[in-house]
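Quick entry between incubations.
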Amino acid sequence: MTPLGKVVRTTAFKLSAIYIAVFSAFSVFFVLYIAYSTNVLLNRQVHETIAAELLGLSQQYRIGGLPAVVSAIEQRAYQPGASLYLITDVSGRILAGNVTEVSSELLERAGVDPVTVTYDRYAGDAAERTAMVQVVRLPSGFRILVGRDIGEREQFRGIIGAALAWALALMIGLALLSWVFVSRRVLKRIDSLSASSRRIMSGDLSGRLEITGTGDEFDRLADSLNAMLDRIEHLLYGLKDVSDNIAHDLKTPLSRLRNRVETALAGPADTERYRAALEATIEESDALIKTFNALLMIARIEAGSPDGATSEVDMSAIVRDVVELYEPAAEEAGVALKVDTPEPVVLRGNRELLGQALANLVDNAIKHGAAAGPTAPREVAIATARDGVALVLTVADRGPGIPAADRERVLQRFVRLEESRSEPGSGLGLSLVAAVARLHDGTIALGDAGPGLVVTMRLPIR
Amino acid sequence: MRILLIEDDKEAAAYLARALREAGHVPELAADGDTGAAMAADGGYDVLVVDRMLPKRDGLAVIEGLRAGGDQTPALILSALGQVDDRVVGLRAGGDDYLPKPYAFTELLARVEALGRRRRPSASDTVLTVGDLALDRLAHTVTRAGQAVPLQPREFRLLECLMQHAGQVVTRTMLLENVWEYHFDPQTNVIDVHISRLRAKIDKGFGEPLLHTIRGAGYMIRDPAR
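Done. Structure below.
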């Protein structure tokens, strides 16, 4: 793009151009309007003057007859800045006046409105002049012509025209100046913003756009873009985290699986041994599939679930379902499930996912509730309550709990605390719960049940 | 059963066909949507196993086409998509059951057999019997050898589900789907505990056990005389 093309394409240029066009049109209209009304006013003045003079001369004629008129005209005609006067006899011969050579047709137009004519003031006067004249025919057949020179008006028109041209020129000049100023300023900011963006895009994700602190629109834009960059950075690190975790948590069981098969093949060909190895392999791959499914599910949930799967669901009914499902297993583990769902709490959500989330929480609580000391009561309390426009679901166990420092961390994918490393599990259960909570615009918080862990899920009821 | 397998992955299809044949079924293969739709339209199949993503014609489109033509052959949809509402979409298109990939063959076999058996009128029988065990669906009573067996409502539904598929393997996820109406994966052995409670009620103290655990697959209720 040529430098000129670049300038022409800027918003500042376009805005300035529109501004100049609109303002010029307005100014031209305004000046023309003034010129027109002035013209009308002056015309009327001229007409009135002519009419008054004609009336005066007619009166002179009535009082003093022709000689009085002729002497009046002669007297008036030679005053400085005088009007045009002419009196002719019936045949058109000039009796008195300060105008030479007037066409006979003009004199025939007696009694009508003033017309504009060109005339010679003196014999031999070379200049063509313009005047507005009116002719009156006296009863005796004589004609009186009175007129005013309108050269002044033409001059006036010229002055207005010049003023208009100057004003326009000045305006365009000022607009150009302001445009240069504005566009330079704006372009500078824009160029700085795009340079920063390019730098950030080329790899330095921690970079941010400069905020001048003036609070102008560019600051607001930079602020939004910075927020977007924060989110992108967060997502990217999340993704990196996930891929690192996948690499570790999926590769480990995969290599274990491979090793087992390899060992089985390397040993003596014994059907029983093969069978055992194959069964273990299937078990391991099932666990892998489970982990993989859970991962995919979290990813899908985080990408946002389509509306197709949401409906009006009663959370207390889901609690009853899940508790009913886990009751025998809990009993077997020596854990009592206590339920407190005083009223139905209906919200718009995905029954499957809410059920799965609650199942994960109850499952965790049973595992850890059972791991409590010998004196601790082995129970898991599950409760739903309404808190204004939110549903509060709590699952509390009496187990060892989670240290405050680790509570945020265990919500991340694959994070398992050292204490539970030896137990089966993928480290995805709580991440899924957190993802489900986010999908429903809710939050999840881990707290101290004193002793034990309490997980609180808050979901807005829309 | 005659089973039509519409699956474009040659290896998976060959494996499935062999495994189904070993299980005593007669599988036939179609490698793309158009061929599959044409074969299914000829009829004579007890169950269709349809992969969701197929060349030429999408698996859902194949099923929709059949249903539009009035063909009600039960169809199991296989899908690698695994989206949250994928199952809903599949069932809405006219599928009868849905299985996300990767799946265990035992799961697929159990579901295929359950679908095939669906056509039998047993679904509307008011009294289901397996050996000397009888379940009255209207009276909500269960008797074993003429002796009343009191069951919790959920245990009743569990037994009902097993007895509807008597002689067939019913997997844990099938039980969760049919009895609890959830499709998620219960983390631990929750279903197993329910089954052992049920077993304690219907088998304990009676002669031959009816409720069997099929290792690596699920459960089966079976008449020992057959």
